[in-house]
Design goal:
By secondary structure, this protein is an alpha/beta fold. It is built from 14 helices and 11 strands. Strand 7, helix 6 and strand 8 form a beta-alpha-beta unit.
């Protein structure tokens, strides 16, 4: 079970869920059960459960055309299920609550638990998702589903600058200097890569990832135990969640993904995260600090191998260390390619879509390094030492 949680945490921390990183399409749940507190003898509850079953059998953008998803708010018309691709991922689902959202019977809060269980590892919960069921005339099951986000945030303070609107969890104070920096950064990334800036970005700012995840209707998602550094940011295409108060509005790493995603689709996690780290750092660390962290990993473990890490997808026992190795190594490659071949070289490697061995060969060509493991590993260690002391 530890391995499962580490892998899931790495998926969250490595915000490769990149922009417009369209919101990931959910995988149909193999089964949808009903929790012991859900009384389907009540007509409304029975209808809502049937609605959830219909949605989870085909949880994609067709939900609106099938009349399953509400279109009464601009957000639900444009985005829909903002938790798609995180909450489900093909896990069995259990409806654990259909609860009135207030006086009357027109809106219900629907809570769905995604979890697997087996005799060897026990229960492995993935997510607790919160949707709303809204009574609407003509709906196939008398109700349609709707997202939590527009309901939760409708009275939140907001600030706009350039292409960005920032929304603030109650009690969180806007930082004008960081707002300005973020707006300038978005324009500068678009100019550097010769892509159009995003039409609009919505950035939700809170004091923790738990807080901003609950805001979108993700009441639980696992993270690795222990002292590793929490991510604090998540990119959902045109929506960014920022839950690290030390970083706040200028979570530059995620803005890189949001700018490049629609016009310059990424080819690999290594190089897309490398570009974002090269320009915007990672989880509060500057690019140089990431290089220094990479160098410390190399010095502490002589068995680490750059080609081997690429081939195994940077999947190491410590998920936090694996994320840092991935981001810092990617940034190291991007930095070296930019110094040698300019932004044209960076664009080439950013869009590489190939297997690990072919990727290593392409990287070696851009770097001018012999395409063998020993030479690439020597370059990786030498370059990290140089970059961390610059």
């Amino acid at each position: 079970m530890t391995a499962v949680l580490n892998r899931l945490s790495l998926m969250m921390c490595a915000a490769s869920l990149i922009a417009t990183r369209p919101l990931h399409t959910q995988v149909p749940s193999p089964s949808v059960s009903v929790g012991f507190g859900v009384d389907t003898s009540i007509t409304d509850v029975r209808n809502v459960v049937s609605l959830v079953r219909a949605y989870l059998a085909k949880p994609d953008s067709s939900a609106r055309s099938r009349g399953i998803w509400s279109s009464t708010t601009e957000f639900d018309r444009r985005i829909g299920d903002v938790t798609a691709g995180q909450a489900n991922q093909g896990f069995p689902a259990t409806v654990v609550g259909v609860i009135s959202d207030g006086p009357g019977d027109s809106v219900y809060v629907v809570k769905i638990l995604y979890a697997r269980a087996d005799s060897a590892r026990g229960i492995a919960p993935l997510a607790l998702q919160r949707l709303y069921a809204v009574r609407e005339a003509g709906a196939p099951y008398a109700f349609r589903l709707a997202s939590a986000l527009p309901r939760i945030t409708r009275n939140w303070e907001r600030r706009s600058k350039g292409h960005i609107t920032f929304w603030y969890v109650p009690g969180h104070k806007p930082n004008p200097a960081k707002i300005d920096r973020a707006a300038r950064f978005v324009d500068s990334v678009a100019k550097l890569f010769s892509v159009p800036p995003p039409q609009h970005l919505e950035v939700y700012v809170g004091d923790s990832m738990d807080e901003v995840q609950r805001m979108i209707g993700l009441d639980f998602f696992p993270e690795s135990s222990g002292p590793g550094q929490r991510g604090g940011g998540l990119n959902l295409g045109s929506i960014l969640l920022v839950g690290n108060p030390a970083i706040g509005e200028d979570y530059l790493h995620e803005f890189v993904h949001a700018v490049l995603g629609p016009s310059l689709p990424a080819g690999s996690k290594l190089l897309s995260e490398g570009v974002a780290t090269w320009l915007g750092g990672s989880r509060g660390r500057t690019t140089r600090e990431m290089f220094a962290l990479l160098r410390s990993y190399q010095q502490a473990d002589s068995t680490l191998s750059f080609p081997a890490l690429v081939r195994q997808g940077f999947n190491v026992p410590d998920a936090d260390r694996g994320t840092n190795l991935l981001y810092a190594t990617g940034a190291l490659i991007v930095d070296a390619v930019h110094r040698k071949n300019g932004i044209a070289g960076v664009r080439r490697i950013y869009q590489l879509r190939t297997d690990p061995n072919a990727m290593l060969r392409s990287i070696s060509i851009e770097l001018g390094v012999p395409p063998d493991d020993a030479a690439l590993d020597r370059w990786w260690r030498t370059e990290a030492a140089r970059a961390s002391s610059r």
